[in-house]
TrEMBL record:
NCBIfam families: pcaI_scoA_fam. This is Succinyl-CoA:3-ketoacid-CoA transferase. Pfam families: CoA_trans (PF01144). Belongs to the 3-oxoacid CoA-transferase subunit A family. Keywords: Transferase. The keyword Transferase applies. The keyword Cell wall biogenesis/degradation does not apply. GO terms for molecular function: CoA-transferase activity. It comes from Flavobacterium akiainvivens.
């Protein structure tokens, strides 16, 4: 069995270079690869195109890369909760490609499955459809969307084994599951890394064939994006 384990985040992100396209799992601050984002900030990698549902908040998640002007283009479905994201977008400093959330997920899944393109009704008749092929299916117009092409996919899982098999916990599965294997190199950071063969096959969400490198992360903050509690 191939051992995908690397010793640390520095080794996991070897080869990440300026100008690359990187997928990053997570939804808001849920299930984001905290260790890997921190390493990208430390490395100072610039000119990145990032594919992610959104860009975290101002001082956490991908917001840290935005602060350092390391992202040139964001491909996402949501721009809320991040004032710096909004400022850079409106000023023209940051190129933003807004994509319907379901389409964003499917463009990742298509890349994972080796499917070059697909048709969807989402976005037909809007700016999203400009320049894209349109066809009618069952009396309804659809537009063609191409699968993403990324250099790295960086995902976060609750548990993994040294063969790269991954298990997610709760809603942290989100975009992580469809991004694993959707790029040339997939890096998985996990909270707990166990020997290969010790995970129950029935509980595995992503098989190790989709993962190139895996490491055990540390010091997860798991910040809550908006803490809402009932008044006393």
């Amino acid at each position: 069995m191939i051992n995908k384990k690397v010793q640390n985040v520095e080794e996991a992100l070897q080869g990440v270079a300026n100008g690359m396209t990187i997928m990053l799992g997570g939804f808001g601050l849920c299930g984001i690869p905290e260790n890997s984002i921190a390493e990208l900030v430390r490395k100072g990698t610039k000119g990145l195109t990032c594919i992610s549902n959104n860009a975290g908040v101002d001082d956490f998640g991908l917001g840290l890369l935005l602060q350092k002007r390391q992202i040139d283009k964001m491909i996402s479905s949501y721009v809320g909760e991040n004032a710096e994201f909004e400022r850079q977008m409106l000023s023209g400093e940051l190129e933003v490609e807004l994509t319907p959330q379901g389409t964003l997920a499917e463009k990742c899944r298509a890349a994972q499955a080796g499917i070059p393109a697909f048709f969807t009704p989402a976005g037909y008749g809007t700016e999203i459809a400009e320049g894209k092929e349109a066809r009618e299916f069952n009396g309804k117009m659809h537009i063609m969307e191409e699968a993403y092409k990324a250099d790295f996919a960086i995902v976060k899982a609750w548990k993994g084994d040294e063969a790269g098999n991954l298990i997610f916990k709760g809603t942290a599965k989100n975009f992580n599951a469809v991004m694993a294997g959707a790029a040339t190199i997939t890096v998985a950071e996990v909270e707990e890394l166990v020997p290969a063969g010790t995970l129950d096959p029935n509980h595995i969400h992503v098989p190790g064939i989709f993962v190139k490198r895996i490491f055990q992360g540390e010091h997860y903050e798991k910040r809550i994006e908006q803490r809402t509690v009932r008044k006393r």
